[in-house]
Design brief:
Blueprint (H helix, E strand, L loop, with lengths): L14 H4 L26 H7 L3 H12 L7 H5 L24 H14 L9 H5 L7 H15 L27
């Protein structure tokens, strides 16, 4: 007695878990336990709240958040979808980003990392949990997940066979983005 403490689940869930659309495994061999109720209604609520702000406020928010980045690459190392043999930040010929913590290099790192995850990110939040500076990295990747779902009807992690939209080409593509 006296050694037990009841913890509120909400105080310990990661942000990714709070907005998870698939609380039951989609691909599995054996399901252990009972399925739980799924609710995808608030999946992109955090992204939409940020997106509702004026562009200059959004950019200021992004700058403020990533300005704390120390470029330790914990987000890259924790991400199960970062698997390039040589990351673009480590590439020296040509050099895409200079080492150090210059604000423009940090911003480019986060923007390009997010774009590299487009169509691959499953919104697990490993990047955000690994960040020693507690930067909310999911805002950027989740926005791209939302765009991919709306534009291509594709959601990462739902099929072993289907390729991400940016890894495929079809002559029947609409090409609406070409001006």
């Amino acid at each position: 007695e006296g050694f037990e403490k009841i913890l509120r689940r909400e105080d310990y869930l990661s942000r990714a878990c709070e907005t998870c659309a698939h609380r039951n495994p989609v691909l599995y061999d054996v399901l252990i336990g009972e399925e739980v109720e799924e609710d995808a209604s608030n999946r992109y609520a955090d992204v939409e709240a940020l997106e509702a702000k004026p562009l200059d406020e959004r950019w200021a928010y992004f700058e403020r958040q990533v300005s704390r980045c120390i470029r330790c690459y914990a987000c890259r190392e924790a991400c199960p979808m970062c698997y390039c043999e040589e990351c673009f930040v480590d590439h020296t010929r040509p050099r895409w980003i200079w080492p150090g913590v210059h604000p423009s290099d940090i911003q480019i790192w986060h923007i390009v990392r997010a774009y590299h995850q487009t169509g691959r990110c499953v919104e697990c939040g490993a990047c955000e949990r690994a960040c020693p500076m507690e930067i909310p990295l999911l805002y950027l990747t989740k926005k791209l997940c939302q765009e991919v779902e709306e534009l291509y009807g594709f959601e990462a992690g739902m099929s072993l066979e289907e390729l991400p939209p940016l890894a495929t080409f079809s002559p029947e593509d609409e090409e609406g983005f070409i001006k």
